[in-house]
């Protein structure tokens, strides 16, 4: 055990020039699009019911606020309202949140998630009947974004594995999330 600690310490000193790791918007976007694909159904069939799928996730780091990450997601859903023909709707939601690093999991999460904007197409469906269906879909996405990592360090890459063993500070710089040791 003592030898392992010495090797880790020696590796950290050796790689001290590489003591930070940056996650770009594209890397986070790719991670989210790969890891958070989901389909979700809400409502009561025959009354108000929707089956939706989120797909097009876009990420902005420090673009709207210096300490926040923005996540825009588009959902498409098939909406059934009290015996009317099924209608296809599109929901564009834009969230902002504060990123934080969980050392135990070697992952970046979002906290204090806030809905910045919500756009439903077609506009004529943006009424009281759709709110019982739309609100749970948006809440579900919000829950996913705040409980699943938006990026996880890779144990198979030396630099990331070493950072995971330390207690890096998470900062936003030049539209990147920087884990700095």
From TrEMBL:
<feature type="signal peptide">
    <location>
        <begin position="1"/>
        <end position="21"/>
    </location>
</feature>
<dbReference type="InterPro" id="IPR010835">
    <property type="entry name" value="DUF1439"/>
</dbReference>
<dbReference type="Pfam" id="PF07273">
    <property type="entry name" value="DUF1439"/>
</dbReference>
<keyword id="KW-0732">Signal</keyword>
<protein>
    <recommendedName>
        <fullName>DUF1439 domain-containing protein</fullName>
    </recommendedName>
</protein>
């Amino acid at each position: 055990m003592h030898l392992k600690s010495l090797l880790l310490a020696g590796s950290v000193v050796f790689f001290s020039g590489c003591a930070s790791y940056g996650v770009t918007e594209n890397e986070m976007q790719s991670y989210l699009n790969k890891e958070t694909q989901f389909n979700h159904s809400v409502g009561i069939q025959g009354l108000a019911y929707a089956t939706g799928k989120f797909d097009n996730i876009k990420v902005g780091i420090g673009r709207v606020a210096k300490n926040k990450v923005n996540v825009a997601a588009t959902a498409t859903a098939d909406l059934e309202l009290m015996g009317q023909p099924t209608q296809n709707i599109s929901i564009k939601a834009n969230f902002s949140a504060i990123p934080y690093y969980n050392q135990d999991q070697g992952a970046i999460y979002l906290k204090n998630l806030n809905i910045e904007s919500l756009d439903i197409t077609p506009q004529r469906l943006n009424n009281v009947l759709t709110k019982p269906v739309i609100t749970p879909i948006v809440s579900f996405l919000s829950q996913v974004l705040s409980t699943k990592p938006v990026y996880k360090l890779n144990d198979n890459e030396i630099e990331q594995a070493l950072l995971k063993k330390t207690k890096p500070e998470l900062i936003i710089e030049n539209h990147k999330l920087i884990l700095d040791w």
